[in-house]
Amino acid sequence: MRRIRLLAGLTLAVALPAAAHTFAFSPTSAAQACLVLGSATYRVARSGADVTVRIEPSAVAPAVRIELADTPDQADFVLVDDGAPPACAAAANVKQVSIASGTAPFDVVVGFASGAAPADYRIYVRSRWIAPETAAALFAAAHRPPQRLAGATVDRSN
Length: 158
Hints:
Layout: H1 2-22, E1 34-37, E2 40-44, E3 51-55, E4 64-68, E5 77-80, E6 94-100, E7 108-112, E8 121-126, H2 132-142
Parallel strand pairs: 2-6, 3-6, 3-7, 4-7, 4-8, 5-8
Antiparallel strand pairs: 1-2
């Protein structure tokens, strides 16, 4: 009886990780949220971000105010996936985006539209891999207003 339990335990120890990997339940195979806009790919950073976004749903003066649309027809930007994980691994021109929490420093603030404050952009998200808030952060990183340097003038004439 003891041998059967030992054999069953060893079989489970070998079979569970293999089955988990087959059905994409492995922690190392988790898809990384990304969004391709134009020639750049914006990816949620695992470490070292190029842009840090802070989501404040009721921010008074956010850099970008987004409304989550109920239907694609109402949206300026639509993100719908086919159930497959995002294919960002081979992307060129990748911008790493982190989502700030607490009092961490940030580059851009995202607010969500309310009745009194209209949206700058309306987005529709239906994805298995990217939450609407994450999509809003990636979209805001791509559409953030240019930063101005205090006391500096920029000559853009060519």
